[in-house]
Design brief:
The protein is of the alpha+beta class. About 55% of the residues lie in helices and about 15% in strands.
């Protein structure tokens, strides 16, 4: 039960920046410092939840509009946002897959590099890593597994 409450907070610190605070919390022997660090992680997790919900609201609206315009037989969804936080787009992509039951690519351009950075979530009958390998000449890099991947693109 403890992991259910602390796990997302530890995870959030890495998603939104540095995991150093989580590491400090797990290694401190000082109960006062542990409480302070835990409260800080709780705040970071609250920020992550807010960012994730904002991105999800926007992405789900885009997906709904895309399907409404093109019909229910759209085989996949590619969604992009200028200011989506890269630490939450994978979580949101999973939520969109769950709702629409088709592969989802989510790309953010809020990377300060001029490049898009994305996350891909697939469905059981699609090898998303294989699909990215097939199109690798258009990508600066990618990695992951057969169900979910991360990608970098200049296009």
């Amino acid at each position: 039960m403890l992991f259910r409450s602390i796990g997302p907070r530890i995870n959030a610190s890495g998603r939104l920046g540095s995991a150093n605070g989580a590491l400090e919390l797990l290694t401190t022997d000082d109960p006062v410092q542990a409480r302070t660090l835990a409260e800080k992680l709780h705040g970071v997790n609250a920020e992550r939840v807010e960012l994730q919900n904002d991105v999800a609201e926007e992405a789900l609206a885009m997906a709904e509009e895309w399907i409404k315009q093109r019909g229910e037989d759209v085989p996949a969804l590619v969604l992009a946002g200028e200011n989506w936080h890269e630490g939450v787009i994978g979580i949101v992509a999973s939520r969109v897959v769950e709702k629409y039951q088709r592969p989802v690519v989510m790309i953010t351009f809020a990377t300060h590099t001029g490049l898009g950075k994305g996350s891909v979530r697939g469905i059981p009958k699609l090898d998303v890593l294989g699909a990215l390998e097939f199109t690798s000449e258009h990508l600066n890099g990618f990695g992951g597994d057969r169900k979910s991947t991360r990608l970098n693109s200049s296009h």
